[in-house]
């Protein structure tokens, strides 16, 4: 790669905020931008273990890293997050809206009944919408406004293939064909909303230099049972589930000047899942 291409992907002068930063993909998003030299703000509901992780990021190449525990559904918390970032670094350049709830139900007969649409609880519905949609709105509103003031920035909303296509409920069956649970209605609904919000915000802030993107990952292999992994892999064109680090390149592209003429788009990285 020549010097010009190196500079396109360089984040050495950028402050990158990642929400839900201590989750499986959150950590990978942090590692991706750290390796490009960013100053990384590791943001999670509970920052337990975050100090050690920030040290790891600096070893990877981050020019600096700080940790902040924040509830993205709470306005006062997000205002405090903004103030801490500005006091420490003076700017916000990139926001990765990664924090989300992927609804889980207990396995067995109780979980199967609980996950049926006809019995799906309003409490679960509201909680996931609050985090996945309202949280994305709040962080974008407060931190994105700082980007708009400076006339530069990139917001990356982590969506999902299930915001594009319907869940395949057959994946959640045993090898004998028994349904173990149903994928919830709120996760695809909320991720579809994130895609619509991405287009809205790209249009709203386009003329002030703030780019807004969605990144839609496919399923990530993370200790699932062999039957599920095999069933999922058979539906993808590349014949496998994603590895946690398979999204590094896409995230770095959207965060950096390599995507300077890209906004309002949904970058689907799913091994060909949605192409069938």
Walkthrough of the structure:
The protein has 276 residues and is of the alpha/beta class. The chain has a single domain (3-271), classed as NAD(P)-binding Rossmann-like Domain (Rossmann fold), CATH 3.40.50.720. The protein is 43% helix and 14% strand. The protein contains nine helices and seven strands. It has helices at 3-9, 24-35, 50-60, 75-89, 109-115, 122-150, 186-205, 226-235, 248-255, and strands at residues 15-18, 39-44, 64-69, 94-97, 153-158, 210-217, 266-269. It has a seven-stranded parallel β-sheet with strand order 3-2-1-4-5-6-7, sandwiched between helices. Strand 2, helix 3 (50-60) and strand 3 form a beta-alpha-beta unit. Helix 2 crosses helix 9 (248-255) and helix 6 packs parallel to helix 7 (186-205). The protein is globular, with a radius of gyration of 19 Å. The mean pLDDT is 95.
């Amino acid at each position: 790669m020549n010097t010009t291409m190196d500079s396109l992907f360089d984040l050495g002068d950028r402050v990158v905020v990642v929400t839900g930063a201590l989750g499986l993909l959150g950590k990978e998003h942090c590692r991706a931008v750290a390796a490009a030299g960013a100053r990384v703000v590791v943001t999670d509901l509970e920052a337990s273990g975050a100090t050690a992780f920030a040290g790891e990021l600096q070893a990877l190449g981050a020019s600096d890293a700080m940790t902040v525990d924040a509830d993205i559904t709470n306005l006062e918390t997000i205002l405090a997050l903004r103030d801490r970032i500005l006091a420490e670094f003076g700017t916000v350049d990139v926001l990765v809206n990664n924090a989300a709830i992927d609804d889980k139900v207990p396995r067995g007969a109780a979980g199967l009944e609980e996950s049926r649409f006809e019995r799906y609880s309003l409490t679960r519905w509201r909680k996931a919408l609050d985090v996945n949609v309202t949280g994305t709105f709040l962080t974008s509103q407060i931190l994105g406004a700082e980007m708009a003031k400076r006339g530069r920035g990139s917001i990356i909303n982590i969506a999902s293939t299930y915001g594009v296509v319907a869940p395949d409920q057959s994946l959640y069956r045993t090898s004998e064909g028994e349904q173990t649970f149903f994928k919830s209605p709120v996760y695809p609904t909320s991720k579809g909303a994130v895609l619509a919000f991405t287009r809205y915000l790209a249009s709203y802030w386009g003329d002030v230099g703030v780019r807004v993107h969605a990144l839609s990952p496919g399923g990530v292999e993370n200790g699932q049972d062999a039957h599920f992994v095999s069933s999922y892999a058979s539906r993808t064109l590349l014949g496998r589930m994603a590895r946690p680090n398979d999204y590094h390149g896409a995230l770095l592209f959207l965060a950096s000047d390599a995507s300077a003429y890209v906004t309002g788009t949904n970058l689907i990285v799913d091994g060909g899942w949605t192409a069938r």
